[in-house]
Specification:
alpha+beta
Length: 68
């Protein structure tokens, strides 16, 4: 079980083609602050039919895209 499973499930349930979440929204979903380890875990998301798009450190957002 991954510490980001709750986020991956949220993304999958949302079902949108593409959407953006702030770091704060991700923290609320996961229950922990987003940290550098997210980069290692993001590949797990493909099992849920999505991938991590752009991560903006300036805007503090992450874009999620549905995999075709």
């Amino acid at each position: 079980m991954s510490k980001y499973d709750s986020l991956w499930e949220y993304v999958q349930k949302k079902g949108s083609q593409s959407f953006k979440l702030t770091f704060e929204e991700i923290q609320d979903i996961v229950g922990i602050p987003l940290d550098h380890s997210f980069l290692n875990y993001k590949k797990e998301l493909t099992e849920y039919g999505y991938q991590v798009g752009k991560i903006s450190m300036k805007e503090k957002t992450v874009i999620f895209n549905k995999v075709e």
